[in-house]
Specification:
Helix content is 35%, strand content 16%. By secondary structure, it is α+β, with helices and mostly antiparallel strands. Strand 3 and strand 4 (57-60) form a beta hairpin. Helix 2 crosses helix 5. The structure holds FE2/S2 (inorganic) cluster (FES) (2 copies). One FE2/S2 (inorganic) cluster (FES) binds next to loops.
Length: 160
């Protein structure tokens, strides 16, 4: 199939990439752009490992056609922090031991960031709702919820 030129903003940088019209956003991010922080899990929209933020909303990139993000803003885990400069959500995941194998973690963190960007003072229920589509097979959701809530406090204390 003839490729099409996709242009979009990824982590604040303008991107242009030739994509297969049937490619998912996840495939373009991981295979074409070689950014593998976004994880591939079920490929059916059920596990949340591939979560990215599209115009402020957490979305499953494995079921999002890549061409759907034309001229839109996408954030991936690579865009929210670096090893030397972690985002508060990343810091709290480390401090709260909110991961074991870590495979679900990038998706969880993107769901957390989308929530905190919209609602800086979430309740436990808000957090549980935000990660309802993110599966974790090893850590248990309590620690993950605690990490979200501590990150919210940290974000708020930094901005006040
Ligand atoms: S890989 Fe996308 S939801 Fe599982
Ligand atoms: S830490 Fe292993 S799947 Fe969540």
């Amino acid at each position: 199939m003839e490729k099409k030129l996709l242009h979009f903003c990824l982590n604040g940088e303008e991107m242009e990439v030739q994509v297969d019209p049937s490619a998912s956003l996840m495939d373009v991010i991981r295979d074409d752009l070689e950014m593998t922080g976004t994880k591939a899990g079920c490929n059916t929209g059920d596990c949340g490992a591939c979560t990215v933020i599209l115009d402020g909303e957490a979305v499953r990139s494995c079921i999002m056609p890549a061409l759907h993000v034309m001229d839109r803003n996408v954030e991936t885990i690579e865009g929210i922090g670096s090893p030397d400069n972690l985002h508060p959500v990343q810091e709290e995941f480390v401090e709260s031991s909110a991961f074991q194998c870590g495979y679900c973690t990038p998706g969880m963190i993107m769901s957390a960031k989308a929530l905190l960007d919209k609602n800086p003072e979430p309740t436990g229920e808000d957090v549980r709702e935000a990660i309802a589509g993110n599966l974790c097979r090893c850590t248990g959701y309590k620690k993950i919820e605690e990490a979200f809530l501590s990150a919210a406090k940290k974000v708020n204390s930094k901005s006040s």
